[in-house]
Amino acid sequence: MPGLADKRLVFVTGKGGVGKSTVATALALAAARRGLRTIVAELSGQARTAQTFGVAAPSGEEVRLAEHLHALSVDMEQAMEEYLHERAGRVGDLLAASRAFHTFAHATPGMRELLSIGKAWELAQDRRRVPGTQPYDLVIVDAPATGHALGALRTPATFAEIARVGPIAHQGRTIDATLRDPAQTAVVAVALPEEMPVTETLALRGRLREAIGQEPAAVIVNACLPERLGPRQAKTVADALEATSDRVVHAALRAALSQQARVSIQREQVTRLTQELRRMPLKLPYVFAEALGPTQLGALADRVEVLL
Amino acid sequence: MSGVADWLADTRVCVVGGSGGVGKTTTSAALAAGMAARGLKVAVVTIDPAQRLATALGLDELDNEPRRIEPQRFADAGLSLGDGELWAMTLDPKRTFDELIARLSPDDEARERILANRVYRELSDAIAGSQEFTAVAKLHELAQERRWDLLVLDTPPSRNALDFLDAPDRLRAFFEGRALQTLLRGGGAGLRLLGRGTGIVLGLLRRVTGAELLSDLSDFFRLIGALLGGFRERAEQVEALLRAPGTTFLLVTSPEREPIDEALFFQRRLRDAGMALGGAIVNRVHADELGGGNALEDVPERLERATGLSPALAKQVAAAFADEHALARRDAANVARLRTRLGADVPLTCVPLLDADVHDVEGLVRLRAELLGDAP
Question: Which long-range contacts (CB under 8 A, 24 or more apart) does A161-164 make?
Fold first, then answer.
């Protein structure tokens, strides 16, 4: 049992296009339904979660989407200003207003990642740094694709190591300790039942251990097609296809066989993933709807509830 | 339909862009193979190919230079490359960045000092846009060599398809962190940058970062700043290559709403940047077996009557048909939207969803047939 509801920070990552945002939102919705004050923190700057709920979300603003459910599209500039203000008050504001300082911050390798991770961490603190804000029980981070996400998770430790002493070193170490603590932080890996996403998920394990000394708390296989035909039934359908001339019947049989072909690849990949992980990943169904709305998200939230 | 080959008639450099997970890498490789089969010398630069695809192409050697793929691998899969040649490489961004530093450094000592700098060692792969920039920098280098008729670049996996367009700017900002160095030395330029209160700002900077980090960073920026001139020149050449008449961008997308939105955004950005969009490729389109018809009623009954399937099985087949039909309609609507929004002057082609993943040479050959409209 991953027990995600007991954590403070949950990072959702995976290969591009696997549905990280959808999974992050479904997890957050499930947590909010339990009464946990939950926020989805998007690190990609696209404010997709709020869009799904039809809520306008200016970058950097914590917006309410539903009861107990909030979203934030993390804004680097704003995160930096908050940090400076907290460290140095009004003189920090002066620094934040300096052009040379911005040039410096933008040019410093890893600074964007450090600030993004720092912001996600800040959201999960009992004592929020940002005046007038409330703490959250659970922060679900809609993280970048695997490679970038791992890079970002490593940044606090890297900065701490380079800086050795001083405020950034201290801050880096504090955040890194939170990331390494399985009681506070979990990583959820999302895959599709296809070759490349499964391979990337398997490779994630070692790299995650290296970055923050953790295993993925849960692995989700998204967009699984329904398994409608057994092997013998598939054979019957294939034979029927040979024998028919009716256009609609032909199209129906072709469609069923095409789905079946993809289902067998899917099964192969889920098996490979299960064997390598030595546990069952959580399978989420393919959503056939035109667009993902509250109904579909609600159904997905029901499915991921078990991970809480 | 002769497909994508026509779009590339006068192309020497083809940049393949699109959001993550839409099949950029396989599309790039299939396209390169197809163009090689038309007699061209083609090199494809991939970023992160699936292991099985890399193995299938013999791309496991990571020496950061293109290698020629044995024509026999394709001949075995039914595609003769004839006089054409297919070369491929997997980009190693860190190594390419090191190479770039080495090329820009005035002497060995300067190079060694940068490569040994702690900030550079620990963080160079975190430099915003470095992967994107190294990809185009490598492309530029290969274009300079003039050994190939066509170069195909598969852009880095990124949630934001535009990152590599911004990369030269971001990297320039990075090299210009030299401004900070000047500032730290208390030189005239730095003082002018900040005006009054410089001392206070510096003190603060130390307060928020820590003295050691500041000194390491300042070392780093000083070393890297010495390369600024060379880097600027390189960035300009790279940008010129992206705008050159022989350079074409291809958009790859899946028929889903979000990748299509990104593709359209990408088109606008390309237009603003004065770069040429050669066409759009929509991968994994569900086929509409009914040709747009809507006759979904009584399917289980018709199946039973026509084929003698059991009622239970007929119901499953009808359900699968309904799924696929819904997806085909969704895809058709999304593709129609893309076609309208792209405008009449941008060609578009759809690749049907194949029943198998593409991760071997046979798969590439099939995909090539779909892309180039060649008979399989």
Answer: A161/B122, A162/B118, A162/B119, A162/B122, A162/B123, A162/B213, A162/B216, A163/B209, A163/B210, A163/B212, A163/B213, A163/B216, A164/B210, A164/B212, A164/B213
